């Protein structure tokens, strides 16, 4: 906490605290870190993970989508989106996200070359970002 008091504009103390606090206290810290530096795809993933564990599925979905926007080749983001889809009983969407992760994995291990569209699975640009994920907690 001392480093936050010394310089509240530094991202690292917020991330350090978010990683050590119980999950209920970490989303606000991740939000603050993202306000200070919104260019970090990993932070969006961590934020999404915290929200997912709290069962805030719509907000987790939004965080994972932001991570994908910054890191289109992130298999971890696609797999996290697939998990959210399973939680909200959207198995077809979950399958599409898992398939996109699989395609990226194959490309990264020499199964193909040429980039293949930056990791997008074809449906990214035609939705409204909601993906049928509700904000309800279970």
Characterise this structure.
It is a single chain. By secondary structure, the chain is mostly helical. It has helices spanning 2-6, 12-20, 26-36, 41-53, 57-70, 75-87, 91-108. The termini are far apart. The model is unreliable at 112-129 (pLDDT under 50).
Q: What is the fold's blueprint, element by element?
A:
Layout: H1 2-6, H2 12-20, H3 26-36, H4 41-53, H5 57-70, H6 75-87, H7 91-108
How far is the first residue's CA from the last residue's CA? 33 Å
Strand content: under 5%
Number of helices: 7
Mean pLDDT, as a whole number? 79
List the secondary-structure elements in sequence, H or E: HHHHHHH
* Envelope shape: globular
- Quick one: how many beta strands? 0
Give me the secondary-structure category.
mainly alpha
Low-confidence stretches: 112-129
The biggest sheet amounts to: none
What fraction, in percent, of the residue positions are helical?
Answer: 55-70%
| Rg estimate, integer Å | 16 Å
């Amino acid at each position: 906490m001392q480093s936050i008091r010394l310089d509240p504009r530094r991202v690292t103390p917020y991330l350090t605290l978010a990683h050590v606090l119980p999950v209920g206290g970490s989303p606000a810290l991740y939000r603050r870190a993202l306000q200070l530096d919104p260019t970090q795809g990993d932070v969006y993933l961590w934020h999404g993970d915290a929200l997912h564990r709290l069962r805030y599925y719509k907000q987790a979905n939004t965080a994972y989508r932001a991570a994908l926007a910054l890191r289109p080749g992130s298999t971890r983001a696609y797999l996290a989106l697939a998990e959210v889809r399973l939680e909200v009983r959207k198995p077809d969407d979950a399958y599409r996200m898992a398939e996109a992760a699989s395609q990226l994995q194959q490309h990264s291990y020499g199964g193909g070359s040429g980039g293949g569209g930056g990791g997008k699975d074809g449906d990214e640009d035609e939705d409204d970002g909601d993906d049928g994920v509700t904000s309800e907690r279970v």
